[in-house]
Amino acid sequence: MKTRDLIRSLANDAIVDAPRVALTASAAWTVSVVVLSLIVGIGLGVRPDIGTAAAQHATALKLVITLSAALAGTTILLREAEPSGASRTYYFILLAGPAMLCLGIAFDLWNLGVFGWQSRLIGSHGLHCLLYIPALSIVPLAACILVLRTGAPTRPRMAGVIAGVAAAGIGASFYALNCTDDSPLFVAFWYGSATVFVGVAGAIASHVFARW
Amino acid sequence: MRVFYWVDHHGSNFGRLIDRADWSGPGAMAFPRFAATVLPCRLISPSPRVMGAKNVTKRPFEAKRHYRSIPLTNSDHWGVLMRAALAGNAVAYEALLSELGRSLRVYVRNLLSRSGHGNADVEDVVQETLLAVHLKRGSWNPELPFAPWVNAIVRYKVIDALRRQGRRVSVPIDALAETLSAPESVSEDASDVDRLLHRLPARQHKIVRAISIEGKTPTEVGLALGLSEGNVRVILHRALKHLAAGLRSKKS
After folding, report:
1. Whole-model pTM above 0.90?
2. For tag attachment on chain B, is the N or C end more exposed, with fewer CB atoms within 10 Å?
3. ipTM
């Protein structure tokens, strides 16, 4: 078929599929939050000492960091899902979480001293964390890839990494309710590694499923 | 045949398409005094920046990128055509697609020759890209310029297609002269679209053939097949989606 002929049939097709990226994204958030609340509420459980002040402060810090990753990831994901919106200028909002984490680490080292930093970094449930954060991220990641499928990402792998960061942020926010290791060093190492895993998974998933 | 002119307003990036019929003959409109340039639609009008507009995008960070990275064109008159097309103007849409096709052909041919490929697959890449532009046009925000959007799509699709062809046996070219012009390749080889067309369900195949190759309108096709016009359009849309999916999953 000649290109001229193809154009004739394209011109006769007046149906425009409007991608509803923002709508899909909000649906994705809703589904993820409901599913993860059920998993944490029924299966995994909230940490037993959540009532104490120290635990509340530590959990709040973790939540602020993970939620900022989730929100920044989602914001950039919405831009990456559209062809002309893929400007790298806004990526710096992803640094909000790590910046707060650095402040937390500095505060931790100042308060408790450098001595024993290795044991605080390794913590007591590191592997548990490395297993559960990716597991909890599966549903949000699937939802984020669905958002990319709805749109038209022109850099699928980069968009997949961003989807992974957003999903890991959501997953880690829920895991933080269960996690009893409070040191920012622990959060940086184990949560960070888990996020890297989910980011890589997101890149692969996006390459496979979000092509158009 | 109707001829449209693109009229740039002086000193801004606003402009509009004007039908030549409105300027001549009985009851003609006065020649627009405000026009700084009047260009036939076929030509590429100067960029808004040349015309004196300071900032053409709403997003401050993207204003610069917009002009630096455009392989295809530097004005928004395609945007005007696309806006008309989204409002239901099929003539404007066909004009836009053929202009895009022509630019794309040059672009793809240059890319292919630079990467040491032959000219054989140019038309396939052009067709696949046009299909993608067509099916994804809903993701363009009509308030923004058209060029950044179409360039993002084109770059993605062309790179995707070239990567797929990288696995094929490709014929390296010996002479650079082969890459120079010849507006439409007249090769009679079956294109990828042709091959996929045979795999479509019978009704979709018939409708696409009738509209594109035999040049019928959806109404005529509907009468011939005993379907309503709306039905024909829905089936056509579905067929085009299938074609795009087939091209995407095409293996070497």
Report:
1. no
2. N
3. 0.78
